[in-house]
């Protein structure tokens, strides 16, 4: 799931698409794209190498995407922004937070717009195939029993904090909170935590051991609604307010039924897609000159 190249969000390398878009553009074929001493490498040479090495695979991917695009249009499949945002949120949780997902996107040269587009494609394909994928109650129950440990909810707290550089400033912030001032306002004004200051200082729910030791201990012992004393850590001084707590528990089959169903649907998706795609290839008239050329040169 965390590999953008081999996971369910497949993103074509932009330079390969560029090569295809420029192949045959005679005006640019002679353009020099690099030099080594007095030796020149032209756009045409680059295009030829890219097409030779990656052309068949990339063109097959483009053909697959075009078939899906045509079938989505024919089936009048629509994906809402709410559905995309929900899937994006799921991805953030699977990656261990927004920052981890952003790092993965950075490594894959993906922008937010790129990722949302790939999510839309994936959800569209899922809607196309959902009638062909059957998951029974027996399969769901079996998966739950075999993976019950995965459905244990650890003890968690939902806390907000204001991070400052000095203990004196932390005491000042604490006094204002005790006097009834809003932590969101104070976080925006005082906090040096760039990741949370504009979000009211809110850290969301987290389990034990997820934060530095001093912060962790304070957050899990502090009663709901109380304001902590200044807590020193390697980052500075924190003033913490715990908003909610969740006790550790094993969640029931009924609570996880829909989640498990979606997991099983995802697991069955590759097989369903291969069967569906084979049928669609037969239905659509496809001409692939690169594949033909590659076969002839073997």
Automatic annotation (TrEMBL):
It catalyses: [protein]-peptidylproline (omega=180) = [protein]-peptidylproline (omega=0). This is peptidylprolyl isomerase. It comes from the Bacteria. GO terms for molecular function: peptidyl-prolyl cis-trans isomerase activity. The keyword ATP-binding does not apply. Residues 1-27 form the signal peptide. InterPro entries: PPIase_dom_sf, PPIase_PpiC, PrsA_foldase, Trigger_fact/SurA_dom_sf. Gene3D superfamilies: 3.10.50.40, Porin chaperone SurA, peptide-binding domain. Keywords: Isomerase, Rotamase, Signal. The gene is prsA1. Pfam families: Rotamase (PF00639). The keyword Iron does not apply. Its EC number is 5.2.1.8. It is an enzyme of class 5 (isomerase). Residues 154-244 form the PpiC domain.
């Amino acid at each position: 799931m965390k590999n953008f190249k081999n996971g369910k969000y497949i993103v074509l390398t932009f330079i390969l698409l560029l090569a295809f878009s420029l192949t045959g553009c005679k005006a640019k074929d002679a353009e020099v794209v690099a030099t080594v001493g007095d030796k020149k490498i032209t756009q045409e040479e680059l295009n030829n190498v890219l097409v030779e090495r990656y052309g068949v695979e990339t063109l097959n991917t483009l053909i697959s995407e075009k078939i899906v695009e045509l079938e989505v249009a024919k089936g009048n499949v629509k994906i809402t922004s709410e559905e995309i945002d929900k899937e994006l949120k799921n991805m953030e949780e699977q990656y261990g937070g927004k920052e981890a997902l952003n790092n993965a996107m950075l490594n894959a040269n993906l922008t937010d717009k790129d990722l949302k587009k790939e999510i839309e494609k994936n959800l569209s394909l899922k809607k196309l195939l959902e009638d062909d994928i059957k998951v029974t109650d027996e399969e769901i129950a079996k998966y739950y029993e075999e993976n019950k440990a995965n459905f244990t909810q650890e003890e968690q707290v939902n806390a907000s904090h204001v991070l400052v550089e000095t203990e004196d400033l932390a005491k000042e912030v604490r006094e204002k909170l005790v006097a009834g001032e809003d932590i969101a306002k104070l976080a925006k004004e005082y906090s040096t935590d760039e990741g949370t200051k504009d979000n009211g200082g809110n850290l969301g729910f987290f389990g034990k051991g997820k934060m530095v030791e001093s912060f962790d201990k304070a957050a899990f012992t502090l009663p709901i609604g109380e304001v902590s004393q200044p807590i020193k850590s390697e980052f500075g001084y924190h003033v913490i307010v715990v908003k909610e707590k969740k006790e550790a528990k094993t969640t029931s089959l009924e609570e996880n039924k829909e989640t498990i169903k979606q997991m099983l649907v995802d697991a069955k998706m590759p097989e369903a897609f291969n069967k569906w795609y084979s049928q669609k290839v037969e239905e659509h008239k496809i001409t692939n000159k690169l594949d033909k050329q590659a076969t002839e040169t073997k």
